Automatic annotation (TrEMBL):
This is Response regulator receiver protein. The keyword Phosphoprotein applies. Gene3D superfamilies: 3.40.50.2300. It holds the Pfam family Response_reg. InterPro entries: Bact_response_regulator, CheY-like_superfamily, Sig_transdc_resp-reg_receiver. Residues 11-129 form the Response regulatory domain. Keywords: Phosphoprotein. The keyword Phosphoprotein applies. The modification 4-aspartylphosphate is found at D60. One of its GO terms (biological process) is phosphorelay signal transduction system. SUPFAM superfamilies: CheY-like (SSF52172).
């Protein structure tokens, strides 16, 4: 993994109920300079969003209770200053073309299949955040 520290200071909210996935994502993103918070559910993500004010959201689709599709729809229904325009990545094991289409239609900017290469993930997030600021 080439480490250009492209994520320095970016706040990233990871929503995944798998402890190993959260640990892996935290290590990868913090190694590139990000500040990472992880939560295991959509409900907790919605609760922390206004306080943490993340620059990007990484979300699994299969979550307990409400799924990632429901979460991103709720996020997108918020005003921009409430996090409604946050760049969002669906990072999921649901990896066929229908899953990708469904994720994009729900409001994610991109869909990435697990497992993901660390360098690719950093690149995706850096590009999304940069593009969202244009």
């Amino acid at each position: 993994m080439q480490n250009n520290l492209r994520l320095i200071g970016l706040r990233i909210l990871v929503v995944d109920d798998d402890d190993d996935s959260c640990f892996y994502l935290t290590i990868v993103l913090e190694a590139d300079g990000a500040i990472v918070r992880t939560v295991p559910s959509a409900a907790l993500a919605l609760e922390i969003l206004p306080r943490f004010k993340p620059d990007a959201l990484i979300c699994d689709i299969a979550l307990p209770g409400e799924d990632g599709y429901t979460l991103i729809r709720k996020v997108r229904s918020r005003k921009a200053y409430e996090g409604g325009r946050i760049p969002a990545v669906a990072l999921t094991g649901y990896a066929d073309s229908d899953d990708r289409s469904r994720a994009l239609e729900a409001g994610f900017q991109t869909h990435v299949a697990k497992p993901v290469d660390p360098g690719e993930l950093v690149e995706i997030i850096a590009n999304l955040v940069t593009f969202s600021k244009c």
